[in-house]
């Protein structure tokens, strides 16, 4: 029997992983598209990759809305959500109403912390899987996916009550579905896909926050310098290191476990960034340039709140959060005034 996968939010990241999943045996991969619907419906996704070459992926079904996907009557085994996480704008979990059944696992490939809770609360009987990736991919034109480098993705079951219910059927089911999904990725050529426990995956999220929370809002607040420019400036280097260290010290205290020894230190992360020849800028800067709402809550706000629940403060993140929120507020207010 075919494994039915729905890519919900078929942008660059979702479409790239969807195209790889589609090559796995017995996988049927469909997509809900928005602005790129007409292009994908007509021509599929054209993918270029230094690792996988150039190819076309035609989803088994292309839907323009969640309603169309619901009307298909397909029982989805996996729904992969790869949209921006903007809880201050909307609760996107409601868009999956009528798509998630008891055999469904919802896979969240999104930045930040706390992205899983809305889905867990709305779909308590479904398996919620949490994914973190470092893939570099973009969609320069509708339906054209350019994969530049990296494929690594880590996925783990979201089990916030794991200690109390570690032997429950629900947790065993979530862990089994998680392993099946990772095996599909590996079968699709993503050899560095890894299945992690709940705790280790949440540590991965905190580790990535150390990078995103340091570089993303900083680039926005400073007018768009690249990651390498920021990391190579002596004063800014010390600032970035301070933010990263604050996150790396707080995360294990919130989770209750230390980072694995193979997780890179702040010094190693910064040295790697200093040598980056691409001139790449944080994705938050691109969102700012395009006038989009920024992922401030999941990258800055939620880490601060999770720390406060444990009696911990994050003054560096709190400063970045306050500054970035005010910058976004003023831009929105000024934009509204200009339209009057």
From TrEMBL:
Similarity field: Belongs to the ketopantoate reductase family.
Keyword Lipoprotein part of the UniProt annotation: no
SUPFAM superfamilies membership: 6-phosphogluconate dehydrogenase C-terminal domain-like (SSF48179), NAD(P)-binding Rossmann-fold domains (SSF51735)
Coiled coil: none
CC per GO annotation: cytoplasm
All residue ranges annotated as the Ketopantoate reductase N-terminal domain in the record: 5-158
A Pfam family: ApbA_C
Source species of the chain: Viridothelium virens
Role according to the record: Catalyzes the NADPH-dependent reduction of ketopantoate into pantoic acid.
Protein name: 2-dehydropantoate 2-reductase
Catalytic reactions of this protein: (R)-pantoate + NADP(+) = 2-dehydropantoate + NADPH + H(+)
GO molecular function, one term: 2-dehydropantoate 2-reductase activity
UniProt keyword Oxidoreductase present: yes
InterPro entries for this protein: 6-PGluconate_DH-like_C_sf (IPR008927), 6PGD_dom2 (IPR013328), ApbA (IPR003710), KPA_reductase (IPR013752), KPR-Related (IPR051402), KPR_N (IPR013332), NAD(P)-bd_dom_sf (IPR036291)
Taxonomic superkingdom: Eukaryota
PANTHER family listed in its UniProt record: 2-DEHYDROPANTOATE 2-REDUCTASE, PROBABLE 2-DEHYDROPANTOATE 2-REDUCTASE
NCBIfam families in the record: apbA_panE (TIGR00745)
One GO process term, biological-process aspect: pantothenate biosynthetic process
Key words of the record: NADP, Oxidoreductase
EC class: oxidoreductase
Domain annotation Ketopantoate reductase C-terminal: ranges: 201-327
Entry's EC annotation: 1.1.1.169
